[in-house]
Amino acid sequence: MPSTMPSPPARARAALKRAIDLAGAAMGLLLLAPLLLAVAAWVRLDSPGPVFFRQERVGRHGRPFRIHKFRTMAHAPQAAGLALTVGADPRITRAGTWLRRTRVDELPQLIDVLQGTMSLVGPRPEVPRYVAAWPPALRERLLAVRPGITDPASLAFRDEGERLARAADPEREYLEVLLPQKLRLSAEYLAQAGPLSDLGVLWRSLRVLLGR
């Protein structure tokens, strides 16, 4: 029976990626601490509710975890409904409008990287209901690694909310049009992922963040 254990080179690459994740997340939280504290205060002052939005996502090997984001919407108990934010959603707060446009709301996921549930670069984590729609073969590949704060798919579809707002049925548009394209890009990323390609994705993501 063939062994399912990763090869020594694969283990070495995984160890290097985790070391980069830990160093990058720790440095990012340290350097960004003044910004993160200021944003946290702004979120609390702008509307009632917690600083962080915590939502269940599917992580490595299918294990669920609760992601960290700055809260960008009016606080309300999570309901079983549309898990997408479409265009100028009226629930979005004044602070949330800026946070979403600049992607600063994603920065608390550096905490998730330190905790080991996420990586700096990797396929974006989805909610369980959309993971259930992934093709089985792709699901196995994408869930074999830690999900990431950024990846080529999230860069390519950073205008996702606006695209969904133009659709007659946003969830159908997401499931039938956007999601297959995002999965293809994520699979292509995994096929050639390595330290250099990850640094390239991080650099492109930083340029988008600073540009906004």
TrEMBL record:
InterPro entries: Bact_transf. It is an enzyme of class 2 (transferase). One of its GO terms (molecular function) is undecaprenyl-phosphate galactose phosphotransferase activity. Coiled coil: none annotated. It comes from the Bacteria. Keywords: Transferase. Belongs to the bacterial sugar transferase family. This is Undecaprenyl-phosphate galactosephosphotransferase.
